[in-house]
Amino acid sequence: MAMLDWLEARTGIKTALGHALNEEVAGGARLRYVFGSVLTYLFMQQVVLGILLAFYYSPSASDAWASTAYLNDQVSAGWFLRGLHHHGSSAMVVVVILHMLQVVWAGAYRAPREVNWWTGLAMGGLVLAFALTGYLLPWDQKGYWATQVATGIMGSVPGGEPMQQALQGGPQYGNLTITRFYALHVFVLPISLTLLLVGHLALFRRHGVTPPAGLSDAELKRKAQPFWPDQLFLDVLAMAVCGAALVGLTYQTHGAELFAPADPASNFVARPEWYFLFLYQLLKYFEGPLQIIATVLLPGAVAVMLFALPWIDRGKTRKAKDRWVALSIVGLLMAGVTALTGIAMAEDAANESYQHGLEVAEKESKQARELALLGVPAAGGVAVFDNDPKNQTRKLFKEHCGTCHTIEGKGGSEAPSFVDYGGKAWLTALIRNPADKRFYGGTKAHKTMEPLTVEAVSDAELAAVVEYVRSLGGPELGTTDAGLVAQGKELWAGKLECSSCHEIEAGKDSTGPTLAGRGTAAWIARIIQDSSAKDLYGDTAEMPKFAGKLSPAEIEALAQYVAEQRPRE
Amino acid sequence: MRSSDERDPPEGGEAHDLQDRSHGTESASRRGLLKAGIGVLGCGLAAIPAVPAIGYVLYPLGGARVAGAFLPVGERGQFSATPVRVDLHADRVDAWSRERDVKLGSCWVVEQDGKLQAFSTACPHLGCAVDYEPGEGKFKCPCHRSAFTAKGEVEAGPSPRPMDTLEIEEKDGLVAIRFERFRQGVPHKEPV
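^ inputs. structure came back:
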């Protein structure tokens, strides 16, 4: 206490605190006054959490997703703090609405509190701006695509394009978008909100609470209670309920979702956060030139109407029956917003392609976040998928094989294509005409195997030969029909004379490659190592030897990759 | 027209009267309870972000140290009794990002009594890069004049300990070294 007195003598802190806390609450403390305090608490908590997130978050197109994934999935309690911040924004929207409804119900927007009302409306707008700017920051698919829609709307209104470009830092999203949104979210908006909040609170102190309309002046005075501790206790109790709900929600959802890194080349099922769904739904009803009704005119009209509410309300007293016009307007507005939100949710729940899109997105998110644990390649964002061994093999293929071979629709045509490699259709086409561009047509020396005309071998006979060749690959290539295999074997040695060039035993020298194990990963790996082995392509081999150039593991991975192109039959 | 709620702000000192007006000790003890409640709930609310924040801001300090892998530096034949400086490259994960094939540091590799030995180029004194003087057959630090014998022992200058050896491995004629850094300025070699 002595220390407090010492401090008081020098700073007057006790007096200042007493001044802040000693306020008469006319008509007594009430639960209906708690919303403003709960919002103040939520805002302060958001600020603290935001600062904590900034300990790890890095605002750049290459680092944003990776740093968010790191803080969410690796840093201790990162998921919890980020989850609280995420759900905290939803909580703020909910409490803003409750606060506004309480103010409207009590008639607290009326003279002399119009400026309280306007500062409150402005802060409500800022809360939405916080949500919009914060959504983009993780630079994940959902934030990226949902925000694209928002800025796209901005660009579609007359004169909005320069605004959109200024906000994005150019015609496209990139580093400049993220640094702008970051600066807005962590500096501009919090400072603006704080200034407005100071004004709002000062005005609140000036005018006091708005007690129930039915109480007389004498009753108000008689029932009055001090803010400290009577009202503050109720306020803190409400904050505690809100805080506990937030903690519960955060645990239950295991924090905030984080989708795969933003991929401008993908098509993601973009949806805004739940509190913007009504606007999203509204957009569905106004197409083409009418779109501006949903994007600007209706929201603008609502904003103007709320702003003008103190004048729209011509009631003689604050009693509800005298203010039915104002109450009905706000009531209808809320009903409309609720209905639109409900319809949007119901439509999405019934929308199969959306649900499927969500499933895909969640799978991708899981994969990306697992791969991110290894560290995201410096290129950032979608480069995280390069950590996938499969993608490394793809890269390897592109580098060493793709100039001549085509795979997954990409590559050269100087050597056989691996699209559907080794499947029945692929084998049939190959045997029918090896000189086709799809097979050896692009090579220099592989002209030895003659095409087979339909006169020489019927489609049915060819199918039997293909079945026989498949059977030589062994069980790895799938089941075969024994009858067809036997028929094919006969054609093979007899009429078609395949056996004069191709051996069917491993290791035997032959003109054409041996067909024992043909198409299996092990057989392909041997070709990659050295296709000029005597039992493979021998003297006719044109493909470079990769043994020594690539590691055995790399060769195995490539062989596996090619073998996997075989369709399931 | 003024409606009932349009009051002037409360006069200073009026709040003080409120306490006196209320019902004496019963009310005083009730308010004492409320104040305690505010204190308890307030602390609880502050704890929601504050408690997890402690471990959060300190991450990843105190985590288990992971020994680095052996990094290939060349073939056995490249090295002899004359020290050769080699760079050690590996993938490096810096918090969330991974860089491929980054130069982690370098070391001197020298053959002694038929066996290879690797010395970190970081001077144990304050971490400057130690050079080899072929004419004198000594390692010398350019910053504070520490000098070491070809075996890495301190010969002169402020270095508190011999040059730091690194683990070295020979397999199939290939040499690999495990890169580590050590605390500077202390007499004992301590990994950091």
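The first strand of chain B starts at residue 70 and ends at 75. Chain B touches chain A at residues 1, 3-7, 9-10, 14-16, 18-19, 22, 31, 34-35, 37-38, 41-42, 44-45, 48-49, 52-53, 55-57, 59-60, 91, 93-100 (CB under 8 Å).
thumbs up if we can close this ticket
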